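A reminder from the course coordinator: this example appears on the midterm review sheet, so study it carefully.

Given structure:
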C-alpha cells in the first residue's frame, strides 16, 4: 500500500483523537485540523480505489470512520463522483461494524451509510445499492428511540429510499413502509413545532416527503383521499415558507403536478385551471437560462395537452409546442437539458400528428427525437425513454400512411429501447408491452407467425414482470388479450380466445370504476367479447359486449378524444345485433351512434375512414329496408369521403373501394343512371386490383354483383362472363371465410342457371353445397347452426334441379341428400371421428379440433376497433 496513504491515515487519526480529547474552547481548532487531514485522505483514496480502508486504518475509532465518510460525502456534493461515493460507503460501513453494540451513535452511522449507498445508487443506477441503502435506513430507524431528536430525519430517509425502491419494481410492503415512516416523521415534527423545537423548514421537508409517498400510494390503490391529502400537505408546506423563499418554486411545481393528477382522477376543470396557473407562475419565476426551466416547461406542456384533449382547440397544442421551441432557443447547443426538452417536443409533435395528420409534424417529431438521441452517450438511461417515444411516432405514422417501412422501424426501435436495461427498471415492462403491440401490428400486416409469437412473448413478459397488485398490470393484460385473440384466429385454439377474454376481463375488473382507465378497459373487453361472439355465436357474449361498450361510452367525457372511438365500438356491436336479429331498430341505433362518433372525430385517418365506411354500409342497408333514396345517396357520399383517409398504398384501401362500389350500385337502383353503375364497376375493379389475401374474395364478389346488374341492363355477355369469373374466384379462395365463398358460389350458380349455362351452374351449386358444413360449423351452438342453414334455404332443391337439367339423376339425389343432412353429418360423423381419434392420440385430436375451429369459423361482418390500450409514454420531465 502507498506510504503516503498510511501517513495520511495515521495523521488524520491522531488529529481526530486530539479533537475528541480537547477541552471545550479548543476543540473547534482541533476539529478544523482533523477535517483538513481527512480531506487529504479522501483525495488520496480516490486516487487509489484499490486500497483497503480497514487494513489502512487499523483499530480506529468508529467516529473517525464516520467523520471520514462525512468528508467524502461533502466532496461528493461538490464533485459528483462514483469513487467518492464508494469511499463514503466503505468508511460508513467500517463505522457501523466498529461501533456496533459499543457506540451510542451507532444508529447515526447506519443512517449515514444508507445516505452514502443512496448516493452510489444515484451515480450508478445499481438497484442493489438502493436495496442496501433502504436496509441501512431501516436498521437506523429500528435502533432509534421514539423520542430521539434525530428520529424524524431518519424516518424521512427511510421513507424516501423505500419509495424509490418501490418505484423500481419493489414489493407493495415498501410502499407501506414509505407512507408509515413519512406519517410518523410528520407527526413528530408537528409536535416539536408546537413545542418550538422544530424549524418550519423541517416541517416543510417532512410534509413534502409524506405528500410524495401518499401520491405513490394513490397511484396503486386509487384511493382519492391519498391524492387529496397530498395536495393539502403541499399547500400547507407553501404556507410555512416566506414569500421570498426560492424553495417555493419547487413546491409550486409539485402542487401543479398534484392538481393535474387530481384533474386526471376526478375530471374537475377547476383543478386543471389551477394547475395551468401554477405552472405558468413557476415559469415566470425562472430566468430564461435556468437549468430547471425545461422540466417545468414540460409540466405546463402536459396541462396544455390535457386542455386540448378536452376542448379540441388546436391553439393549445400549438402553444405547448411553441413553449418547447422557446425553451430550446434559449439553450446552448450542448446544454445538458436539451435532450429532455427535445424529447418532450418530439412527443408533442407526435400527438399533434396523431390528431391532425400533418406529415410535417411526424417528420419533426422524428427529427427532434433522433437529435436528442445523438446528444446523449450511448449508455445513457434516457436513451430508452427517447426510443420508446420514437417507436410510438413510427407506429402513429404507419397507422396513417400504411407504409410498411414505418412499422418495421417501430419494431426495430422498440427492440433497441429494451437494450441495456437497468436492473429492476420499472419501465422495462412498459417497453416490452409496447414492443408486443408493434409486433402484433406487424403480424397483422405481414402474416408472419414468428411476429405474433414474439408479440405474445413480450406481452406475457410484461405482465409477469409486475406484482399481482401492481396497477400497471391491467394495462399490459389488455395488450396480452389482443395477442391471444389473434393467435386464436391463426390456430383456432378456443383456449386462446377464452384466455383473451379472461385477460381483458381481469384488466376491466381490476380497474377502479368511474375512472378513465376503467372506460378504456371496458372498451377493450367489449372488443374481445365481440370477437368471441363472432366465432362462437353465443348471444351472452354479444349481450355483455354491448353492456361494457355502453359503459365505456358513459364513462368517457364527450369532449375527450377517446369518446368517438368508443362510441364507434358501441355502434359496431349494435350493428352486429342487427345482423343477428334482423330487426331494423338495431340498425337505427347503430346509425345514430355512428353519426355521433363521426361528428366527434375531427381529424383524418383510419378511425375516420372506418366511421365513414361503416356509416355508408349501414345507410345502404337501411335503404334496402325502407326504400329511402336519401339513405342510398348519403351512403355514396360517405363511401367516397372515406377514401381520402386511406390513400394508396394503404392496406385497407381495397375494402373502402369495394364498399363504394356497393353503395354506387344501390344508388343506381334509385337513379337508373348508367354512369352510377359504371362507377360502381370501376370502383370494384380497382378494389380487386389492389386487394390480396382473404379480403380479395369479398371484393371480387361485390364486383360480380355490379357486373351482373350491368349485364341485365345492357345484355353485354362480357359483363356476364366477368361476373361469373369473379364469383368463381371468390368461391374457390380457400383462405376466404366460408360464408363469403358460399354466397359467391350460389350467385354464380343462379346467374349461370338463368342464362342456360347448366354445366357451370351445376358446378357452382356443388361448391356451395360442399361449403354448407363450414358455414354451419360445429363450433356453433345447434341453434346458431340451424339459423345459418335457414339463411341458405332453397340451396339443396336448386342444386338438385341443376343436376337434373344435365340429366344426372344420381348426382341430383346425392346433392339433395348432402344438403338435407348437414346437421346429422356433423353430429354423427365429425364428432365420432374425433372421439375415436382422441382415444388413440389425444394431442392430434385436439390439434385437428383447433384447425377445424379456425378453418370453419364464420365471417367477420362488423369488427369494432382493436383494443385501444395506448403506448406507455414515459416522461422526460
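Designed residues:
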Amino acid at each position: 500500500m502507498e506510504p503516503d496513504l498510511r501517513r495520511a491515515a495515521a495523521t488524520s487519526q491522531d488529529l481526530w483523537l486530539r479533537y475528541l480529547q480537547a477541552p471545550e474552547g479548543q476543540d473547534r481548532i482541533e476539529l478544523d485540523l482533523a477535517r483538513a487531514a481527512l480531506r487529504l485522505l479522501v483525495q488520496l483514496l480516490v486516487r487509489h480505489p484499490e486500497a483497503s480502508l480497514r487494513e489502512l486504518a487499523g483499530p480506529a475509532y468508529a467516529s473517525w470512520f464516520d467523520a471520514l465518510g462525512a468528508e467524502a460525502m461533502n466532496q461528493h456534493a461538490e464533485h459528483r463522483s462514483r469513487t467518492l461515493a464508494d469511499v463514503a460507503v466503505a468508511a460508513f460501513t467500517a463505522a457501523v461494524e466498529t461501533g456496533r453494540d459499543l457506540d451510542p451513535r451507532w444508529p447515526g452511522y447506519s443512517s449515514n451509510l444508507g445516505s452514502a449507498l443512496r448516493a452510489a445508487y444515484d451515480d450508478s443506477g445499481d438497484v442493489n445499492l438502493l436495496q442496501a441503502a433502504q436496509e441501512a435506513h431501516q436498521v437506523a430507524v429500528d435502533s432509534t428511540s421514539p423520542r430521539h431528536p434525530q428520529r424524524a430525519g431518519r424516518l424521512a430517509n427511510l421513507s424516501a429510499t423505500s419509495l424509490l425502491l418501490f418505484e423500481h419494481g419493489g414489493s407493495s410492503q415498501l410502499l407501506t413502509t414509505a407512507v408509515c415512516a413519512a406519517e410518523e416523521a410528520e407527526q413528530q415534527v408537528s409536535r416539536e413545532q408546537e413545542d418550538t423545537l422544530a424549524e418550519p423548514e423541517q416541517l416543510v421537508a417532512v410534509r413534502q416527503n409524506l405528500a410524495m409517498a401518499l401520491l405513490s400510494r394513490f397511484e396503486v390503490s386509487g384511493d382519492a383521499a391519498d391524492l387529496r391529502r397530498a395536495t393539502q400537505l403541499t399547500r400547507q408546506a407553501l404556507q410555512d415558507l416566506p414569500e421570498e423563499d426560492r424553495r417555493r418554486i419547487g413546491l409550486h411545481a409539485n402542487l401543479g403536478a398534484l392538481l393535474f393528477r387530481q384533474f386526471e382522477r376526478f375530471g374537475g376543470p377547476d383543478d386543471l385551471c389551477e394547475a395551468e396557473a401554477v405552472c405558468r407562475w413557476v415559469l415566470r419565476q425562472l430566468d430564461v437560462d435556468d437549468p430547471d426551466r425545461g422540466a417545468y416547461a414540460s409540466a405546463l406542456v402536459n396541462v396544455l395537452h390535457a386542455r386540448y384533449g378536452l376542448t379540441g382547440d388546436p391553439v393549445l397544442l400549438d402553444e405547448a409546442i411553441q413553449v418547447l421551441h422557446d425553451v430550446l432557443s434559449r439553450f446552448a447547443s450542448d446544454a445538458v437539458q436539451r435532450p429532455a426538452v427535445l424529447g418532450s417536443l418530439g412527443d408533442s409533435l407526435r400527438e399533434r400528428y396523431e390528431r391532425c395528420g400533418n406529415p410535417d409534424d411526424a417528420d419533426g417529431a422524428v427529427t427532434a427525437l433522433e437529435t436528442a438521441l445523438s446528444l446523449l452517450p450511448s449508455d445513457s438511461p434516457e436513451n430508452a425513454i427517447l426510443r420508446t417515444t420514437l417507436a410510438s411516432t413510427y407506429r402513429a405514422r404507419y397507422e396513417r400512411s400504411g407504409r410498411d417501412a414505418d412499422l418495421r422501424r417501430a419494431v426495430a426501435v422498440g427492440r433497441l429501447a429494451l437494450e441495456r436495461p437497468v436492473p429492476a427498471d420499472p419501465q422495462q415492462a412498459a417497453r416490452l408491452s409496447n414492443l408486443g403491440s408493434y409486433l402484433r401490428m406487424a403480424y397483422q400486416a405481414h402474416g408472419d407467425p414468428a411476429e405474433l409469437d414474439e408479440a405474445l412473448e413480450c406481452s406475457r413478459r410484461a405482465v409477469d414482470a409486475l406484482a399481482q397488485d401492481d396497477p400497471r398490470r391491467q394495462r399490459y393484460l389488455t395488450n396480452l388479450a389482443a395477442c391471444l385473440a389473434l393467435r386464436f384466429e391463426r390456430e383456432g385454439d378456443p383456449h386462446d380466445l377464452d384466455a383473451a377474454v379472461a385477460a381483458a376481463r381481469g384488466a376491466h375488473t381490476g380497474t377502479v370504476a368511474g375512472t378513465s382507465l376503467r372506460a378504456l378497459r371496458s372498451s377493450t373487453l367489449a372488443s374481445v367479447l365481440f370477437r368471441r361472439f363472432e366465432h362462437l355465436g353465443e348471444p351472452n357474449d354479444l349481450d355483455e359486449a354491448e353492456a361494457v361498450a355502453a359503459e365505456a361510452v358513459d364513462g368517457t367525457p364527450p369532449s375527450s378524444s377517446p369518446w368517438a372511438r368508443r362510441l364507434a365500438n358501441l355502434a359496431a356491436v349494435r350493428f352486429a345485433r342487427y345482423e343477428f336479429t334482423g330487426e331494423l331498430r338495431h340498425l337505427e341505433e347503430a346509425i345514430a351512434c355512428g353519426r355521433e362518433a363521426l361528428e366527434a372525430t375531427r381529424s383524418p385517418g383510419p378511425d375516420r375512414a372506418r366511421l365513414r365506411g361503416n356509416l355508408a354500409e349501414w345507410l345502404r342497408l337501411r335503404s334496402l329496408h325502407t326504400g329511402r333514396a336519401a339513405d342510398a345517396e348519403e351512403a355514396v357520399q360517405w363511401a367516397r369521403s372515406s377514401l381520402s383517409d386511406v390513400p394508396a398504398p394503404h392496406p385497407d384501401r381495397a375494402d373502402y373501394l369495394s364498399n363504394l362500389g356497393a353503395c354506387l350500385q344501390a344508388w343506381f337502383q334509385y337513379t337508373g343512371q348508367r354512369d352510377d353503375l359504371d362507377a360502381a364497376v370501376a370502383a370494384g375493379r380497382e378494389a380487386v386490383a389492389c386487394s390480396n389475401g382473404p379480403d380479395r374474395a369479398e371484393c371480387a364478389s361485390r364486383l360480380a354483383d355490379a357486373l351482373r346488374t350491368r349485364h341485365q341492363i345492357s345484355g353485354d355477355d362480357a359483363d356476364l362472363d366477368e361476373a361469373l369469373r369473379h364469383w368463381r374466384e371468390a368461391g374457390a379462395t380457400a383462405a376466404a371465410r366460408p360464408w363469403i365463398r358460399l354466397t359467391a358460389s350460389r350467385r354464380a350458380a343462379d346467374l349461370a342457371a338463368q342464362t342456360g349455362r347448366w354445366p357451370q351452374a351445376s358446378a357452382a351449386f356443388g361448391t356451395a353445397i360442399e361449403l354448407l358444413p363450414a358455414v354451419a360449423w360445429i363450433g356453433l351452438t345447434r341453434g346458431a347452426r340451424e339459423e345459418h342453414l335457414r339463411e341458405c334455404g332453397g340451396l339443396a332443391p336448386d342444386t338438385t334441379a341443376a343436376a337434373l337439367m344435365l340429366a344426372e339423376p344420381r348426382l341430383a339425389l346425392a346433392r339433395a341428400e348432402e344438403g338435407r343432412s348437414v346437421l346429422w353429418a356433423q353430429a354423427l360423423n365429425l364428432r365420432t371421428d374425433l372421439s375415436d381419434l382422441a382415444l388413440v392420440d389425444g394431442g392430434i385430436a385436439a390439434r385437428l379440433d383447433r384447425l377445424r375451429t379456425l378453418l370453419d369459423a364464420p365471417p367477420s361482418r362488423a369488427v369494432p376497433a382493436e383494443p385501444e390500450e395506448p403506448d406507455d409514454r414515459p416522461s422526460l420531465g
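The two ends are 46 Å apart (CA to CA). The chain has a mean pLDDT of 83.
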